[in-house]
Specification:
alpha/beta; nuclease; 7-stranded mixed beta sheet; binds zinc ion; 15 strands; 6-stranded mixed beta sheet; 307 residues; EC 3.1.26.11; metal-binding; RibonucZ/Hydroxyglut_hydro; 3'-tRNA processing endoribonuclease activity; single chain
């Protein structure tokens, strides 16, 4: 994944407004598209083959990049449809942004509203879940959750049992029993281990700390959380419906997250984010980072397995 924009509502020369690009086995997903998102995509080499755009809420710093991005996609003669997911009761407003282009692009754009508990997108082996967040407008967060993966195939054991190397191996791995030449039946659980958990990423968008973030995914590999302020402006965080780094870290800790990325950094912190890091680390034992724009992260499989 690539952090395209990590600033709060007002961008800085270092940080663009919100945008996160996720590339997963050839499929590209975009979460929020603040002003300038398309240029960030060019700078950081993500390409424009996004199939789904997930919008957390309709504040400008999360959506003003949509018209420009769509216009460039149209100039590129895009034909593939684009699905845009947006919180309930915001479809009309989002349509206004699409219509701001004047000429509607030739490729199909599907806009759908999503609410708490909805699966915004179900793919072959993962889904993107929606959860309600606590901001000062209609807002949701998203969790990309992979299905469990098949258990490990014990090749040695299969050979011991007399299974010939070849298609019977894959049938067993797929979960089907196979019959050997002497009539013996080998069951999958004799040679295939327990299913292994997939990966998960949770992105809150703008929010106060909320329990729904903890509930949406079990021990996420990565939690990307609003951390607009540090402790010095904790009161302001509550008033403006945002979080502090410490508040984000408490959620990460309670969710059992493995890594925490603090984003939506207020322009008041151009001097540095040392306080964000220190305060979060006091509260959360896992890895904490405040990504720069353009920073890329690979999310490994749980337990750092070799595949
Ligand atoms: Zn924002
Ligand atoms: Zn906002």
């Amino acid at each position: 994944m690539t952090f395209l924009g990590t600033s709060g509502a007002v961008p800085t020369t270092e940080r663009n407004p919100s945008g996160i690009h996720v590339s997963r086995e050839g499929e590209e997903l975009l979460f929020d598209a603040g002003e300038g998102t398309q240029r960030q995509m060019m700078r950081f080499g993500t390409g424009f083959s996004v199939s789904h755009l997930f919008v957390t809420h309709l504040h400008g710093d999360h959506v003003f990049g949509i018209p420009g991005l769509l216009q460039t996609m149209a100039f590129n003669d895009r034909e593939e449809p684009l699905a845009i997911h947006t919180p309930q009761a915001t479809r009309r407003q989002l349509k206004g942004l699409v219509n701001a282009l004047g000429n509607r692009p030739d490729f199909p754009i599907r806009i759908s509203e999503v609410g708490d508990g909805d699966v915004a997108y179900r793919a072959d082996d993962f889904e993107v879940r929606t959860f309600e967040t606590d901001h000062d407008t209609r807002s949701v967060g998203y969790a990309l959750v992979e299905d469990d993966r098949k258990g490990r195939f014990d090749r040695e054991r299969a050979e011991e049992l007399g299974v010939p190397v070849g298609p019977k191996f894959s049938r067993l791995h797929e979960g089907d029993p196979v019959e050997l030449e002497d009539g013996t039946v080998v069951e999958p659980d004799q040679v295939v281990g327990d299913p292994r958990p997939g990966r998960s990423i949770v992105y809150t968008g703008d929010t106060r700390p909320t329990v729904r973030t903890i509930e949406v995914a079990d021990e996420p590999d990565l939690l990307i959380h609003d951390a607009t302020f540090a402790d010095d402006r904790a009161e302001r965080a509550g008033e403006t419906a945002h979080s502090t780094a410490r508040g984000a870290a408490e959620i990460a800790s309670r969710a059992g997250a493995k890594r925490l990325a603090l984003v939506h950094i207020s322009s008041r912190y151009t001097g540095g984010v040392d306080d964000h890091l220190a305060e979060a680390r006091e509260t959360f034992d896992g890895e904490v980072l405040v990504p720069q724009d353009g920073q890329k992260l690979v999310v490994p499989f749980p337990g750092n397995e070799d595949d």
